Amino acid sequence: MADHYEVLGVERTATTDEIKKAYRRLARELHPDVNPGADASEKFKLVTHAYDVLSDPNQRQQYDLGPQTGFGGGAGNFGNFGDIFETFFGGGGGRSGPRSRRERGQDALVRVEVDLDEIIFGTHREIDVDTAVLCETCNGSCCAPGTQPVTCDICRGTGQIQRAVRSLLGNVMTSSPCGTCRGYGTVIPNPCPTCQGQGRVRARRSIPVDVPAGVDTGLRLQLPSQGEVGPAGGPNGDLYLEIKVRHHDVFSRNGDDLLATLEVQMTDAILGTTTTLKTLDGEVAVEIRPGTQSAEIITIKDRGVTRLRGNGRGDLKIGVQVTTPTKLSHKEQELMKQFASSHKGAGPSLTHFQQGLFQKLRDRFLNL
């Protein structure tokens, strides 16, 4: 690693003005606009970096002293109590070396809407996710192609700056992350132009997902290592899919059962009939027995939702609603009068209050 003073061609005792004059002289000779050679370009970068360090009093002092400085403060100076407590109670002094640029990426959450018929047997989806992906230009190195990180000349690659302070407890060594390299131990003089030295970029990618049968609104599915890629090409986080089942106009769900209402004409309820209904997974024949009453439940086994954890399926439960015609022709009225006269009952009478049809259906559904 080149010495900054040698790069600028000045003594270690050079003043700030002498360092500035040396830099200006070399910059005029090596600037790419004046000297387009490849060697000149690299030397210009070294000269610029050396000037950046030596022109800053704090960085120059740390550079001159190396990664470990001498005791600070004079007699009666008790030092920085924060540093002391960090040393004794697990602060910055506990790090044994530089930290890695590679870190695990964050988890991501995506909401996925599915239809009710898709959760009976499960479904396959391609989910588009806007997330962080590995930078293809630098492949996660954070450096421009053909370059690499260089050892920090302030901390000499340790990632830490150590110093000693006087305290009531004596001379105590403290350690804190290097401000120049931020604790990495290396610096990147030529960051990747695509990701600006992050090792990752934002992009949209498609992820194949198998949504299992039986999921319900609010359930979260975990896809390991499908989240964001970490800084500097670190491992991916996880992707979580939060399920939302869309509303269906006919069917609703109660656990693993499907619920629906079947409107039956009064004559069909009286005489009985057989009808074919279109369910979420095909047609099914339903028998309406003679004398069927409103709020009766017809159960069709194994036509509900596939159980998420277990075998088999729930049932399809159909609540009957008998409908009464509101407009009759003269002939129909005469027929109904004949029917009524042959089934003469006690007539209308008061009885205990009964809940409405939909309330009765709900109670029967839940109590089955």
Describe this structure in words.
- It is a single chain.
- The chain has 368 residues and is of the alpha+beta class.
- It folds into three domains: 1-55, Helix Hairpins (Orthogonal Bundle); 56-245, Sandwich (HSP40/DNAj peptide-binding domain), CATH 2.60.260.20; 252-339 and 355-367, Sandwich (HSP40/DNAj peptide-binding domain).
- Helix content is 24%, strand content 29%.
- It is built from nine helices and 16 strands.
- It has helices at 4-8, 16-30, 38-54, 57-65, 81-88, 118-121, 266-271, 330-342, 357-367, and strands spanning 68-72, 108-114, 123-134, 150-151, 160-167, 170-177, 186-187, 200-211, 220-223, 239-245, 252-254, 257-265, 273-279, 282-288, 297-300, 316-323.
- Strands 11-12-16-15 form a four-stranded mixed beta sheet.
- A hairpin with a 2-residue loop joins strand 11 (252-254) and strand 12.
- The model is unreliable at 68-95 (pLDDT under 50).
